Amino acid sequence: xxxxxxxxxxxxxxxxxxxxxxxxxxxxxxxxxxxxxxxxxxxxxxxxxxxxxxxxxxxxxxxxxxxxxxxxxxxxxxxxxxxxxxxxxxxxxxxxxxxxxxxxxxxxxxxxxxxxxxxxxxxxxxxxxxxxxxxxxxxxxxxxxxxxxxxxxxxxxxxxxxxxxxxxxxxxxxxxxxxxxxxxxxxxxxxxxxxxxxxxxxxxxxxxxxxxxxxxxxxxxxxxxxxxxxxxxxxxxxxxxxxxxxxxxxxxxxxxxxxxxxxxxxxxxxxxxxxxxxxxxxxxxxxxxxxxxxxxxxxxxxxxxxxxxxxxxxxxxxxxxxxxxxxxxxxxxxxxxxxxxxxxxxxxxxxxxxxxxxxxxxxxxxxxxxxxxxxxxxxxxxxxxxxxxxxxxxxxxxxxxxxxxxxxxxxxxxxxxxxxxxxxxxxxxxxxxxxxxxxxxxxxxxxxxxxxxxxxxxxxxxxxxxxxxxxxxxxxxxxx
Length: 480
Ligand SMILES: [Cu+2]
Fold this sequence. Notes:
- By secondary structure, this protein is mainly β.
- 4% of the residues lie in helices and 40% in strands.
- The relative contact order is 0.15.
């Protein structure tokens, strides 16, 4: 089937059981009415699985509990939980709990010293979930040159930590993981990373100093899905005029930043990486970098049948979308391109107040092009991992961490076990109150984030693009 045929048959949905559909009505913002929904004991089975993106596109991969995404793990803030992991594969595995403030030995990172789940063995993680909000869990193994390992597999799922208050005001909610499948190496990646290529580039070196060596291999995919279905092949999201629908977007891709639009509707962004923003704001296009989450409410006030999906035609037609169907509306799903839009974290923030932290850490990122057939590598402050004694933290100290992106890519930068408050980004735009665990720093861009060093133990920092991390884009922060 040609990709352009997707839209023609959109709406003729294959029968299937939605993993996260209208069956899932409890809010992450308030305790659920039924006490047995949030649990304290979870089991994850790591094993080969198949997922049917469409009747003629069945993917073989590795997943949790027979599906991808894996089960939604719903827990209560502050109530200790146990996760039992059984590994039915031939390689050691790590389950990382992304966005949680938990000790290094259960965080799920080899670099931090978390014990592995041995091949054909088991491991138990005991932790106390915090903070409230939409988090996620995923494998944290390295892939290197094997595109069937690590974050290229189906080993990921949503993790929701229910808070104690803040009842939400919405009619239904949906957990939507954006994914790509069957990645391959390429020398000519399709570059959809830059929403605003004309944006400020304070870290762009003078032309004479640019490294113009032939770049190495990048990873690309052109098969996409939201959860386990490509556009046109899952159940549509059924809404009524006037519904307020809360979407929880997660970019579970190992490869690329993604954008989502819904013709005729705006996304009112209320939380980033699970953390409520100071200034909720409406946007036409939501950008989600690998590892990031965006929570947005859409007021359903344009009756019809619509495609909600990626603005880039090859990506949407390759499967990154889902049909939104109003009650009593019957027609072919409609897509129209959104207005030109530039994603800007600072519109959700508030003006800075109070002094900046006086303790500063600078990280300068460089890409070393390796040439045809090889993998590019990355350095942090000109050094390769693990940066012995380079980044030492004093407990109880607040730091300003400045990222200098001297590369020709945007990077989603993730700090484990801590929360980052954006202080300045996009060429010196100041802000406060935007709390994240993963921040996309644009091409040749700079960003400063503040964090409190209050989680002793080795702490991994890395780019959330798997290949970048594996080939050097990471550092280990230590407490002195
Ligand atoms: Cu990167």
